[in-house]
Amino acid sequence: MNSLGIYEKALPENLSWIEKFKLVKELGFNFLEFSIDESDEKLARLEWTREQRAEFRDAMWQTDSRINTLMLSGHRRYPLGSKDPAIRAKSLDMMQKAIDLAIDLGIRNIQMAGYDVYYEGKSVNSRELYVENLAKCVEMAEKKDVMLSIETMDDPFINSLADIAHYKTQVRSPWLQSYPDLGNLSAWPENNVAQELENNIDNVVAVHLKDTLPVTATSKGQFKNVKFGEGCVDFEGCLRTLKRLNYSGSFTIEMWSGSDNNAIDEVKEAKSFFDALFKTVGIDQEPVSNQLANDLGGKIHA
């Protein structure tokens, strides 16, 4: 049995947290994936006051909801491997604040973007700075018992589970694991996706469900906004492999329809797509209980 979540950016942006959590359950998901991306708006969440954190927790409690994962893509703007010491210091400060926020909100897993740098040129030095600062991040997380999981990326620096396994040899810790994105993993032609999952299943703590178009000699690929079933990901094959490997962690549907007027319809369509696949391969989704949300319906709509 696996839990199925939805990425926060897939939902309408103008909802309160209570409305958002209630919608997540109404759409049939077990959890919401929380976003701290590189925008000023999302980065400001790292500075939430005690009262703001309490308000957020209360919204979760009132709707009997949870957040399994925090997606910390803000390191794309402030990368661990930057040549600028001020940016590296900012990246480490962000990580400490993200860990503290995760503790306060009851989040157990922080997904790290696997970039040494994104807007700068890559080098042996950017790689080394990344590894040195990754070790510092893991030390921070260990002290608070928070999992860090590196995502396979839309970038050649870390685009496979084998890459993550290698960096685990450089930073050894049970609190550093992998978060494969099936879309990103499938888009790179050098990856044998089934073998990647088989060889590294012991390190997998969560999985992103996203479709992509492949990287080729004439194309950089497409890593966002590819309709499910129209890209290169063999979802049925990947899910069958994960079931055989007894993967019982969470899946998150990753999509970006939050600014679209048809956002909810698009999420429903995606949910139906994966409901059918789960049934085909024999994956049972954790039951979604709306009882507490229904009991508190008057408060939720207040």
Please provide a written account of the structure.
One of its GO terms (molecular function) is L-ribulose-5-phosphate 3-epimerase activity. It comes from Paucilactobacillus suebicus DSM 5007 = KCTC 3549. This is L-ribulose-5-phosphate 3-epimerase. The structure is a single chain. This protein is of the alpha/beta class and 302 residues long. It has a single domain, classed as TIM Barrel (Alpha-Beta Barrel), CATH 3.20.20. Helices cover 43% and strands 12% of the residues. It is built from 12 helices and 8 strands. The C terminus is likely disordered.
Order of adjacent strands in the largest pleated sheet: 6-5-4-3-2-1-8-7
Structural class, by secondary structure, is alpha/beta
Number of strands: 8
Estimate the mean pLDDT confidence. 94
The CATH superfamily bears the name Divalent-metal-dependent TIM barrel enzymes
Biggest β-sheet: count, sense, barrel? 8 strands, parallel
Highest-level CATH class: Alpha Beta
Q: How many domains make up the 3D coordinates? A: 1
Distance between the termini: 35 Å
Q: Note the total helix count.
A: 12
Q: Strand fraction band?
A: 5-15%
What is the N-to-C order of secondary-structure elements (H for helix, E for strand)?
A: EHEHHEHEHEHEHHEHEHHH
Radius of gyration: 19 Å
Helix content: 40-55%
GO molecular function, one term: L-ribulose-5-phosphate 3-epimerase activity
Domain Xylose isomerase-like TIM barrel: 21-274
Protein name: L-ribulose-5-phosphate 3-epimerase
Pfam families: AP_endonuc_2
